[in-house]
């Protein structure tokens, strides 16, 4: 029943196989079912042996779990990808300019594009960053932009992840496992490679060395430790880049520099790719109860003795209420129309939007602007008449406190499930790198898939799986 | 190298070696049981295993009888025994997990696969498969670990810290094993066992086999098995990979590679006892008393370990 309502990545809407999927469709048709069963088991074993797991807090069956991997790839044509890439670069470039501006002249507020409260009263705004110049004016060195598709050529940005986005290790390992399981597929399809991501990342990180650093700057990955859910990824990236994986306890501050404790004594660190959130970076400056960071780090950072990637205070650019302004942010700094659209969002503080929302409340999702985690939310199609009425009242009383979005028809992709191959909803997270010398995005990303029939929730913590993501070279 | 990384590497080496040594220690007793030589003195034999491990008290906390099944379960899968094979492999794997960025992926896979093979085992499965086969498997995994480390890691300081752990642990184990067995089997203690050359053959033979030295013994001495020669082989032989001498030579050479020209206490300690092994004679050691000699060896090994921590792992 859901088949005709949603756009399917392989079959479009009319059931014919879309061009980028031609090779994979043949492969699915010609491969005997029992071979797939064997290969899928082999894939599970590979992931387990490689130890590609993520930690689940408080789960009974041990602290690690495999994220289910589906062997049917998600495929984008070269044309689709090049449009996405241009749009991603445009968006991340504008967001970096926005971050520079909000910690310097606040031109965007002066121009009346964004109210100052939206920035200065945001919990994620860090006054410590005011008037601080970071190398190359790069704040977001690594961005993970969540994208969904609803139709041919129609992509929407669902969310910007500009703090410590994760998932790139799955992009790389999914590819490596697919190549190991099905080498002939890669012979028959011209799939753009992704394995150079760590090299691209290291190059960008080195490019933003602090001015004081010597010729060959030292880069390290800072992890909260083995019990963090993304620890595998931290270790994986450090290994692939050939740099140290450090915990807070391995670092200390002395003489206005950051040092690692090594077997031969202290060694200076110039660039820290940190996978620890802002509040935990430095107990002297932020949360005094969080011991994952390095006392004194902020003061070295402010004096230009070390570079942090991503910079402190990027969260203000990726939170839900700022998201609304991203199209305007792009227009303001670049003078261009956004190439990638936001999910259409109705702002109830605009009269025409509010009128539409009140009329169509049964079809929309209404959210509190400052809310998070599903609180203060109305899912129109599932709500009772009384609940809708209550929200109409709430919106009228405080229009600026609410936004509304249509329920999104995420595209589907054929996926192996218990009953065979069936369509399941997917999204996409490409990883955009920015350095002093420019931007890069490897062709692909992390495709997450909601394994439960009809479910739109792709999060791995909710039982979502992943797929290899292909961009076909043309 | 990060001090924490060095520490993980060192303990990775120690825990894998310890798991192997646990398997070797109970293997001796299983061999003797299988040959019917333990008949009537089972408690002594299995008690000796606990004595080697200094675990008599810990064992008594959860067991009433000292017997083959109880001790085997205690040493292999008992999660409450910190030195059980299960816990050693788990600890090794935790250390390896923290080293994902340092060790080769092959080495990680080797440790992880060992853990996965062990994690959900129970005694019934081991009994069904055969305890000796299980012990053999543990040894093979440890052999594979060393082989993979040797063949896939850069032979740099990371490798040296890992090997240090291996040989410190092995030296300690050889000293303990020999100390306990010698006091049980050497001529001056028992009357029955040693007037009988067959007893010496089987019992020392089991010890030699458990340290993979049975054939080597015959190649070296071309003669019957005696306590004194077994002791010589496990203490002074420079070419016997589980002897104290061999282990100390390895420890000394790795420390030399790591000292970076510094004068380190751990290196001095290793050299001091190493000299006794290098220039010592077995008759003199036996006159002095093997037990006090081995006790000093164990004290030295513990001191070296403490000073490795001071010299490399807590440098700031």
Keywords summarizing the entry:
heterodimer, A: 474 residues, alpha+beta, Rossmann fold, Dna Ligase, domain 1, 5-stranded mixed sheet, 14 helices, 23 strands, B: 316 residues, 17 helices, 76% helix
Binned, the helix content of chain A reads 25-40%
- Can you summarize the main beta sheet of chain A? 5 strands, mixed
How many helices of chain A? The count is 14
Q: What fraction of residues of chain B sit in β-strands? A: under 5%
Q: Quickly count the domains of chain A.
A: 3
Count of all domains of chain B: 2
Shape of chain A: globular
What's the mean pLDDT score of chain A? 90
Query: How much is the radius of gyration of chain B in Å?
Result: 19 Å
Structural class of chain B, please? mainly alpha
How far apart are the termini of chain A? 35 Å
Number of strands of chain B: 0
- How many DSSP H or I helices of chain B? 17
Q: How does the helix and strand content of chain A classify structurally? A: alpha+beta
Instruction: Please tally the β strands of chain A and state the result.
Output: 23
Strand content of chain A: 15-25%
**Would you identify the regions of chain A where 5 or more consecutive residues have pLDDT less than 50?**
57-62
- Shape annotation of chain B: globular
**Main sheet record of chain B:** none
Brief characterization of the structure:
The complex is a heterodimer of chains A (474) and B (316). Chain A is an alpha+beta fold and 474 residues long.
Topology:
The complex is a heterodimer of chains A (474) and B (316).
Chain A: H1 22-30, H2 33-50, E1 54-55, E2 64-65, E3 69-76, H3 78-102, H4 107-110, H5 116-120, E4 142-151, E5 154-161, H6 168-181, H7 183-188, H8 197-207, E6 219-222, H9 231-241, E7 244-246, E8 251-254, E9 257-262, E10 265-269, E11 271-274, H10 297-302, E12 307-309, H11 320-323, H12 326-334, E13 341-342, E14 346-347, H13 351-359, E15 364-368, E16 377-379, H14 385-397, E17 402-406, E18 412-417, E19 420-429, E20 431-435, E21 438-441, E22 446-449, E23 465-471
Parallel strand pairs in A: 3-23, 5-13, 6-7, 6-11, 11-12
Antiparallel strand pairs in A: 1-2, 4-5, 4-20, 8-9, 9-10, 14-17, 15-16, 15-17, 18-19, 19-22, 20-21, 22-23
Chain B: H1 3-34, H2 42-52, H3 56-62, H4 68-76, H5 85-97, H6 105-119, H7 123-129, H8 131-152, H9 157-185, H10 192-195, H11 197-210, H12 214-221, H13 227-235, H14 244-258, H15 265-279, H16 282-288, H17 290-313
Helix pairs in contact in B: 1-2, 1-4, 1-5, 1-8, 1-9, 1-11, 5-6, 6-8, 9-13, 9-14, 9-17, 14-15, 15-17
């Amino acid at each position: 029943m859901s088949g005709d309502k949603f756009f399917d990545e392989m079959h479009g809407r009319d059931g014919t196989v879309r061009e980028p999927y031609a090779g994979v469709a043949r492969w699915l048709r010609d491969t005997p079912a029992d071979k797939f069963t064997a290969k899928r088991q082999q894939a599970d074993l590979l992931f387990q042996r490689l130890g590609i797991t993520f930690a689940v807090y408080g789960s009974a069956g041990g602290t690690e779990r495999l994220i289910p991997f589906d062997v049917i790839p998600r495929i984008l044509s070269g044309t689709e990808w090049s449009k996405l890439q241009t749009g991603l670069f445009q968006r991340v470039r504008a967001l970096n300019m926005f971050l520079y501006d909000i910690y310097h002249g606040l031109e965007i507020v002066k121009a009346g594009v964004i109210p100052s409260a939206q920035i200065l009263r945001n919990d994620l705004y860090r006054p410590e960053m005011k008037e601080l110049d970071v190398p190359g004016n790069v704040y977001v060195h690594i961005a993970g932009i969540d994208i969904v598709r609803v139709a041919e050529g129609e992509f929407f940005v669902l969310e910007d992840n500009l703090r410590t986005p994760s998932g790139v290790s799955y992009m790389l390992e999914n590819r490596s496992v697919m190549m190991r399981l099905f080498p002939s597929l890669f012979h028959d399809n011209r799939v753009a490679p992704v394995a150079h991501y760590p090299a691209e990342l290291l190059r960008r990180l080195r490019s933003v060395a602090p001015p004081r650093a010597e010729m060959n700057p030292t880069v390290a990955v800072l992890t909260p430790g083995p019990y963090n859910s993304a620890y595998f990824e931290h270790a994986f990236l450090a290994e692939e880049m050939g740099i140290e994986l450090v915990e807070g306890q391995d670092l200390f501050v002395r003489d206005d520099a950051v040092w690692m404790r090594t077997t031969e004594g202290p060694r200076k660190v110039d660039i820290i790719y940190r996978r620890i959130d802002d509040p935990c970076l430095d107990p002297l400056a932020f949360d005094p109860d969080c011991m994952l960071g390095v006392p004194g780090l902020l003061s070295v950072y402010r004096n230009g003795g070390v570079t942090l990637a991503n910079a402190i205070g990027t969260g203000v650019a990726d939170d839900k209420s700022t998201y609304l302004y991203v199209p305007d942010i792009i227009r303001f700094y670049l003078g261009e129309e956004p190439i990638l659209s936001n999910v259409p969002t109705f702002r109830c503080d605009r009269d025409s939007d509010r009128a539409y929302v009140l009329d169509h409340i049964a079809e929309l999702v209404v959210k509190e602007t400052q809310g998070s985690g599903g609180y203060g939310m109305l899912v129109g199609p599932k709500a009772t008449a009384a609940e809708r009425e209550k929200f109409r009242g709430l919106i009228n009383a405080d229009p600026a406190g609410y936004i509304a979005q249509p329920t999104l028809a995420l595209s589907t992709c054929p996926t192996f499930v218990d009953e065979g191959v069936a369509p399941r909803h997917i999204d996409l997270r490409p990883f955009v790198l920015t350095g002093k010398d420019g931007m890069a995005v490897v062709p692909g990303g992390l495709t997450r898939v909601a394994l439960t029939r009809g479910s739109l929730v792709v999060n791995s913590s909710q039982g979502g799986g992943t797929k290899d993501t292909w961009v076909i070279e043309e | 190298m990060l001090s924490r990384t060095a520490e993980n590497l060192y303990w990775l080496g120690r825990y894998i070696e310890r798991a192997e040594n646990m398997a070797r220690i109970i293997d001796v007793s299983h061999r003797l049981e299988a040959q019917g030589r333990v008949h009537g003195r089972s408690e002594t034999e299995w008690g000796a295993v606990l004595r080697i491990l200094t675990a008599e008290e810990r064992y008594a906390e959860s067991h009433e009888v000292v017997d083959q099944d109880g001790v085997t379960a205690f040493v292999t899968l008992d999660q409450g025994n910190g030195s059980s094979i299960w816990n050693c492999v788990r600890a090794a794997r935790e250390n390896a997990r923290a080293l994902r960025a340092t060790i080769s992926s092959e080495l990680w896979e080797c440790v992880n696969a060992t853990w996965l093979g062990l994690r959900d085992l129970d005694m019934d499965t081991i009994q069904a498969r055969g305890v000796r086969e299980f012990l053999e498997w543990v040894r093979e995994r440890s052999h594979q670990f060393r082989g993979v480390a040797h063949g896939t890691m850069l032979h740099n300081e990371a490798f040296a810290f890992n090997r240090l752990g291996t040989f410190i642990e092995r030296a300690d184990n050889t000293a303990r094993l020999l100390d306990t067995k010698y006091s049980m089997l050497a001529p001056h203690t028992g009357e029955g066992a040693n007037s009988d050359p067959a007893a010496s053959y089987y019992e020392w033979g089991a010890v030699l086999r458990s340290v993979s030295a049975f054939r080597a013994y015959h190649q070296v001495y071309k003669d019957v098995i005696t306590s004194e020669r077994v002791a010589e082989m496990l203490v002074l032989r420079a070419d016997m990979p589980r002897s104290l001498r061999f282990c100390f030579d390895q420890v000394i050479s790795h420390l030399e590679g790591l000292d970076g020209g510094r004068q380190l206490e751990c290196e001095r300690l290793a050299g001091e006892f190493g000299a006794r092994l290098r220039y010592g004679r077995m008759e003199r050691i036996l006159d002095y008393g093997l037990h006090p000699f081995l006790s000093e060896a164990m004290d030295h090994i513990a001191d070296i370990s403490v000073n490795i921590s001071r010299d490399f792992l807590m440098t700031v």
